Structures are given as structure tokens and as C-alpha cells.
Fold this sequence. Notes:
The chain is mostly helical. About 60% of the residues lie in helices and about 0% in strands. The protein has 22 helices and four strands. The protein has a four-stranded mixed sheet, with no helix packed on it. It is globular and about 75 Å long.
Amino acid sequence: MVAILAATFLTTSISFFLNITMSGWQFPIGSLLAGSISYYYLKYEEKEVPLRIYTIFGISAGLTLLFVALSSYFYDTSFDGQAYHMEAMIQMKNGWNPFYEYLPASVNQSIWVNHYAKGMEIVSAAINCTFDNIEAGKAANFMLWASSFFFTLSFVIRNHWVAMSKGILLSLIIACNPIVLNQLLTYYVDGPMGALLLSLIILGLYILQTPRNIYFLTLALIIFFLVNVKFTAILYIALFAGGYLIWALWHKKIVIAKRLWWASFVAGLIAIICGFNPYITNTVNFGHPLYPLMGKDKVDIIYAINLPASFEHKNGLERFVISLFSRTDNIYPKSPYPIDIKIPFTFNKVDLAHASMTDARLGGFGPMFSGILLLSLVLVIILYRVAGKEKFIKQMSWLLAFIIISVIIMPESWWSRYIPQFWLFPLIILLAAEVHLTEKYQIMNKVLYAALLVNLIFCISGFFFNLLLTTKINYQLAVMKSASQTILVDLGESKSNRTRFSEHNIPFKVVKFHNTGVNEEYIAGSQACFIRPSQSAGHHIEEPWILRIAGKFLPFMWQYYGR
């Protein structure tokens, strides 16, 4: 499924170079291209039998369609998703070619739409064009998550480290990174980056064990796409790919090292070319490929609007540690509420309310993560005492070291969504404990599993909140449509909400009335609001039972989730 998205991005980039706008054919052509390449490698390079190949293709196609259907049902209720990620998709679907023109300042948050990496927005827009549903593009998130799970499961089972049942459980927990899970139903790109980084790490390990052509090809596809997902991904690619290269050279695996270098270099070079906007356009027009975050007239997105209160005079390490051991919360600058440091393995309603948020600024790996981390550190000490000389432990140490380095080099590591790979730190240790610790220490493993599963449940609650919001939005749209008249809407920062009206054939007019005393109603989970056309509109449409129950038992909490 990674190949499908990479091929779709390649196809669309070539289209943009040829000044061909986004349409419904790029995703199907990308899927056929990915299938053709995969078929060639599996049949002629890997000598797989046709039945197995067709089974793999069938499963991939079935999952892709399932993910499209699932994504189409749920609305993105995140702030950034509605503010500029979806805006980029809308503009491309409407004919914008980012390779040859910039959007005007009148377009909502045009600076981010014009200058940020667009890999996920491009493939999501291609899916949107194919299925004519703007929410369908979130299927790309599910495809990357599923790919990371299958890569991990295959690697764990292949090495016979644990029994099949435990291998499935462990792989599922590894893939269910809270950053990835919390962003599955949104157009945020940190989750996709986390899933791709996991896939990159697993493919690197595959290559060091068995340097097959299919692994180098898949690694190249991951790097090619990952470069265009998020600016910070370039730094992480250089670190982990470089780490594997150094490992290969250290162990005198020169052939592997050369192939790793060429696969990474060629994939990265093609990625920059296909990422013409932003990397080349930013460099030519603004003097830096990572503008507006770097270069002349760079924009500060941290200190002014995102740095939690009381973090101003603390160094990076202090912020990182405080964030890890605080309650899961979303404290903004100038917040009157202090940061609440908690006892590990404890939680309260603040943790519960924020555990499934897309961008929690504190404790973003979940309410149980501080305890999980401390327990894993105890396991590390035991592992080095019991099996410190084992090859697996040495390899684990190497990987853990690079994960730590990846955190150190990220200036804003306190914000968990910027370092999704740190989720792997305790899980690598847990895997090593499964392999090398005797029954005497298994109680610690069981406690760690239990804490991880509880943490997972906290994150999954976000799907329930989104279900409520989706139900509420559909109800609101049904009421507005029943009025059979033009609806007055103030979209605020959620300008992309206009597609909800057009897709449901609801006539609307954008006006400014928010905070003017008009009795407006928010579109659930967004910054947009509307004026009900009349008291009688929608009187025959019964409010769904799940909303009535939520209103009774969850007052105020879920209605503003994602806003």
C-alpha cells in the first residue's frame, strides 16, 4: 500500500510538471503502476507463485477500498486539517498547479498551503478526485498504518522471537503509536510520518539481515514519499538511513552499504525533484528549501502560538522531561492553568479528555506513557545484567541510541507529535525482554503489556468522539438542507467546511457574523458557524439517539472536541 501512495504521488507530480491538473485518474494509474512493479518483483525477482501474488493484491485492494469507505464516513474535525490541509486539497482539485503558481493571500492560511511539503495532501486529493469525497483522502493514513503493522509483524514472526499470538499483539501495539492513531481520522501529517518512520526502520533491519532487491526497492519508495510528507522527515531519514549505513560499514558489509547509499540517495534526489513545490520553489523564490520555517523572513510557529505556558525560560531537555511526566493536556501560551506533573500510571479526567487529541502539547504519547517509560528503563538495566553480551542486546542498543539522538536533534521534542518515533523506545526494550528474560522477570513484561493496552484504549476513545461529531454534523446538515433556502455561514478558520455544503447540495452564503450578537450555532468540531434558517427548519428530523445520550452523560466535552 505504500507503493500505491508513492506511485500516485509520482504520477501526480509528473502531471503537474506537464501542467496537467489534478483529476480522477491519477490514483487509479498510480495503483496500476504500483501493482505492475510489485508483480514484476514478486514473480521474477522473488519467484513467488501467481496464486500468492494475486492473494496479496486482493488483500491490498480490499483493504484500500475498506479504508476509503471508512474515511469517507468520518469527518476531519481537527483545526489544522480543516484550516489548511484540506484547503490545499480543495485548491488542487479545483485546478491549482502548485508547481507553477502560488495561491493568493486571500486563500485561507495560504502561506502553509503554498510552502509546506504536500505529499499527503497530493495523494489525498487524488483519492478525493477519484471518489468525489473530500474525506475519502484520509484512507492514505490507514494505508500507511496498515503497512507499518504488516511490515512489523512480518519481521517479528520471521525472526521467531515470540509465539505467533504474542507477535501479533506486540506488532499491533508497536504500530498503534498514539500519534498515528490520534491522527488517523484527520489530515495532520505527523501520524503518517510516524507510520512511515516505523516502516523505514523495519525495512532497514530487513536489509541488514537479508539484502533482497524487494527490500531495497521498498525502502527507496518509503524514502521517496516520506521526504514529501513533512520537512522534519528529511532529518530523520538522514539519521536512520545514515545509522544503517554506518552499521553496515562497521561490520564490513560493504556491498550492503553501497546499495543502501545508492537506494537512499537516488530516492532522495527523485523525491526533491518530484517535491518541486516546495523544495525547489522555496529555494528559488525565498532562498531556503524549508521556508517559511527557515531562511529569510522565517515565521515563528512555536513561541508565539504553541509553546505551553511556563516553558519560555526552560531548555530543551527540561521541556522534554516535563512534557513526558505531565498530565496529557493541551496548555497554550499565557494559559492561566499550571502544568500538572503527575505520578506515573495515574490518570484523571484531564488525561481522559485529552488522551485522543491530535496535537496534545503535553504528555502526547498517552496518560500511561511516563510509567511505561520508567518500567522499560528498569528492564534495560536487568537486560544488561542478564544478557548484556548477546548480539540482540547490542543491536537493540544501537537502535535505541539513534532514537535518542533523533529526539535530541529535534528542538521542540516536548511536543510528542514532532517525535513519533520515540514511541518505539520502550517497545524495543519490551521485545528484547521477551527474547532474553526468563520467567522470573515476566511479571514486569505483563505489567508493561497491560499499561500499553490501557494507553491504547485511551487513544481509541477518539474514534468514539469523532463518531459523535460526525453524527452531529450529519444531523446539522440534514436540518439545514430541509430548510430549502440559503444558509448564512461564517467559516472562520475552517474555510474547507464549504465542501460539506456543496457535497450535500445545500445553498449557502459566506458572511461575517461571529461574535456580533447573532444567535449562531457552531458546526460540530470546527471553527465554522451558521445561522439556523428558522425555528421550524428540521423539526421533523429527529436528533439521533446517540447524541441525546451524549448530551446527557457527556455535557460540553465532546461537542468541542477537535475545535
